[in-house]
Amino acid sequence: MKEIEFTSLVLPLRDRMFRYAHSLLLSSAEAEDAVHDLLERLWAERTRLDECRSVDSFVMTAVRNRCYDLLRRRQADSRRDDAVAGWVERSTAAEAERWEMRELVRRAMTCLPERQREVLHLKDIEGYPTREIAGMVGRDEAQVRVILSRARNSLREVLKKMMDDERTTRTD
Known about the structure:
Elements: H1 3-9, H2 14-25, H3 28-44, H4 55-73, H5 76-86, H6 93-110, H7 114-125, H8 130-137, H9 141-171
Helix pairs in contact: 2-3, 2-4, 3-4, 4-8, 6-9, 7-9, 8-9
């Protein structure tokens, strides 16, 4: 793969790569590092990209694998709690409300099992088709649809419980 092809095929994926890495690592700094390292490795091994049918899927799978490597090296639970607690609140009332809802969804997503969180992020946030997600996570399409359905149901339940808990603490 030549530099112009790499620039036109891989570099436009940086934002998606970052968002996906951030959803798995729950740390902006670590996600940035992972994406940067991965872009360097992809450039160094760009000849492998010539063999891929879908460069997009290959790159996102590489992001996933890199993040899993990083997660194996550290204790993820304490870092997730720190990341969730560290998000900054917004100033205006409407913006603050939207921010709180996003924060609530982020916190709720951290309660999901890793596979459900991953598939939900790829489908509903990144907008990947089920077929590509199946290739990225190493499952068939039917399994991805089941995981996605379970993730949405679980997320709905977690959000309902969190919102009920918030209402209870506000009225007390």
